[in-house]
Amino acid sequence: MAKVELEAQIEDQSQFPLGRVHSIETMGTVDGPGTRLVVFVQGCPMRCAYCHNPDTWSLQAGTPVSVEHVMGTFESNWQFYRNGGITVSGGEPLLQPEFVAALFGQAHARPAGRVHTCLDTCGYAYTPDSPERFDALLRATDLVLLDIKHADPEGHRVLTERSMDRILAFGDELARRNIKTVIRHVVVPGYTDSVEECEKLGRLIAPWHNVVGLEMLPYHTMGVVKYEQLGIPYKLEGVPQMDKGRIPELRAAVLRAMKGARASE
Ligand code: SF4
């Protein structure tokens, strides 16, 4: 197929749900329950200071991949996924909702048995003004891993260069639909490692009764080398790795504040 035809298909994903894909991991164990096929899609509108995958930012890069190709890869290794399923991560999957919806729809309709689907997202590409664009995707999603980068609007802007409004709107939509959601929060020294910020996070997520888990991820510097390779300045230069020993205390602060807020609902 000529490149120009492929480009045209990418433009009209409602008819031809090809995805722009960065890479596919066949034995993922950290993005959802069990062993999973993890599709890392290309393109992300956020600019998190600690992003490990700046090579996924551009939507123009990546490889056009069909749903059939992904499902074929799944079938080749299906024995490994009995207790797992398929996760779409990124980059930001909500930039390509038609592709992910088609993939998750196929996973649920698989003749040999329904496949568990998981969406790993920062929520920023959700558009509250046109929620219908995400309807098919959310109807085919079993679990969401939702990154909340910072609980404070100004802190969020500093850390990601973006507002958190649409992320909160997406969280509200997940709660309205009662889709199981795990909150993920990267703990960065000097940015998100205070008890106050964690308590604020707890109050923020308290109204979302669909939240079934909380993952506090200590910041590490393993992604720095990619910035050097891409010639992009690394904004957290000099920030040390997060002391893992403080994670239980901060996690407890989130849960304590969440329970407190729910008690006064
Ligand atoms: S949302 Fe994820 S992929 Fe996007 S910039 Fe942030 S860490 Fe990177």
Automatic annotation (TrEMBL):
Species of provenance: Enorma shizhengliae
Catalyzed chemical reaction(s): glycyl-[formate C-acetyltransferase] + reduced [flavodoxin] + S-adenosyl-L-methionine = glycin-2-yl radical-[formate C-acetyltransferase] + semiquinone [flavodoxin] + 5'-deoxyadenosine + L-methionine + H(+)
Main location: cytoplasm
The name this protein goes by in its record: Pyruvate formate-lyase-activating enzyme
SUPFAM superfamilies named in the record: Radical SAM enzymes
Cofactor: [4Fe-4S] cluster
The UniProt record lists the keyword S-adenosyl-L-methionine: yes
Cross-referenced Gene3D superfamilies: Aldolase class I
EC identifiers of the protein: 1.97.1.4
InterPro entries: Aldolase_TIM, Organic_radical-activating, Organic_radical_activase, PFL1_activating, Radical_activat_CS, rSAM, rSAM_sf
Domain Radical SAM core positions: 30-257
Keywords on record: 4Fe-4S, Cytoplasm, Iron, Iron-sulfur, Lyase, Metal-binding, Oxidoreductase, Pyruvate, S-adenosyl-L-methionine
Protein origin, superkingdom: Bacteria
Pfam family, one: Radical_SAM
Subcellular location field: Cytoplasm
A GO cellular component annotation in the UniProt record: cytoplasm
PROSITE patterns tied to this protein: RADICAL_ACTIVATING (PS01087), RADICAL_SAM (PS51918)
CDD domains assigned: Radical_SAM
GO molecular function per UniProt: 4 iron, 4 sulfur cluster binding; [formate-C-acetyltransferase]-activating enzyme activity; lyase activity; metal ion binding
Record note on cofactor: Binds 1 [4Fe-4S] cluster. The cluster is coordinated with 3 cysteines and an exchangeable S-adenosyl-L-methionine.
Role of this protein: Activation of pyruvate formate-lyase under anaerobic conditions by generation of an organic free radical, using S-adenosylmethionine and reduced flavodoxin as cosubstrates to produce 5'-deoxy-adenosine.
Family designation: Belongs to the organic radical-activating enzymes family.
